[in-house]
Amino acid sequence: MAGRLKSPYPYFGGKSSVADVIWAAFGQVENYIEPFFGSGAVLLGRPGWTEQKQWSEIVNDKDGFVCNFWRALRADPAAVAQHADYPIIEQDLEARHLWLVQQRRELYDKLGDPDFFDAKIAGWWVWGLSCWIGGGWCSGDGPWVLDARKRIVKSPKVKSAGGGISRRHPVLSCNQGIHRKRVFLDHEVGVNRRFPPVNGLSNYLRELSHRMRRVKVCGGDWGRVCTPCVVGTGLTAIFFDPPYTADAGRDPEIYAVEDLSVGHAVAQWCAAQTDNKNLRLALCGYEGEYALPGWRCHSWKAQGGHANRAAAGASNNRHRERIWFSPSCYDPKLDLFARSRGG
């Protein structure tokens, strides 16, 4: 298998469409780190991957559901597939959402054990995320709770107390991520493609598990995987895709784990590494969000989708996407000029 697998779920801000741009800037590196893993589109889009490659790859996410899913997928893809293979039923989406939110705190604590995972939570989480419209899946910030009679009722106090759920209609026009349904009778396109009828989902998740077999999956603050002892001494690429700051004009309720200052903290760390030739860094954000002198800025347009349409001003923000590359990264324009001169 030569890499380039698709993520099994839709994710706001996914970078699948620019994975090639990112890897062209990184080139072949000994170590790769992704402190904000999300859907894993960049790692899964790494060119040239084979099981024989002795690359070091470390991924991290502060959202315990993300970390748990990839750990469970790596360790027991069959169990994840069993829990994820389920029809779209709106009442079950609400009930499972509430149950998952109730597991959030305990799950995060258990993930301190690097060998821990929960296949049921992973399967239900990825199933629900693939049915969900917009952001906020399992964030615990919604205004709905379970009352004494086990009914879902609205509670205006849940915002301050935490532990509530959001309510959304499921995706009905087409299925995302692990649920891919044929919408048009004459052909299948993109996320509407279907898996083969026999063990299609299980085989796909096994492929992902195989790709992730040697990847170290961490859960916690981004800084824990950017220390000198983790980065090491070899040539290292780090892809930063932190939650876009609210002052950059994005919807503040898109992400399950909110930290409005983390992007600027990452940018400060990156600026301090500008002259480090052993690090090839990429930082994602919106136009004007960061100032990094000497870094190359790449402009691109995000794809559409339910998550993007749910964000305030998404139609404009799609055109404001930027990636800042550190000076040690390859610049395709300069490399082309050098080759044309025989350099």
Brief overview, please?
Helices cover 34% and strands 13% of the residues.
Can you characterise this structure?
With 343 residues, this protein is α/β, with parallel strands linked by helices. It folds into two domains: 1-62 and 220-343, 3-Layer(aba) Sandwich (Rossmann fold), CATH 3.40.50.150; 76-207, no CATH class. The protein is built from 13 helices and nine strands. A seven-stranded mixed sheet has the order 5-2-1-6-7-9-8, with helices on both faces. A hairpin with a 5-residue loop joins strand 3 (144-146) and strand 4 (152-154). It is globular.
Give the full name of the CATH homologous superfamily of the largest domain: Vaccinia Virus protein VP39
Report how far the terminal alpha carbons are from each other. Answer: 33 Å
Lateral strand order in the biggest sheet: 5-2-1-6-7-9-8
Predict the CATH topology of the largest domain.
Rossmann fold
The counted number of beta strands is 9
User: Can you tell me the CATH architecture of the largest domain?
Assistant: 3-Layer(aba) Sandwich
Top CATH class of the largest domain: Alpha Beta
- By secondary-structure content and strand pairing, the structural class works out as alpha/beta
**What integer value in Å does the Rg equal?**
20 Å
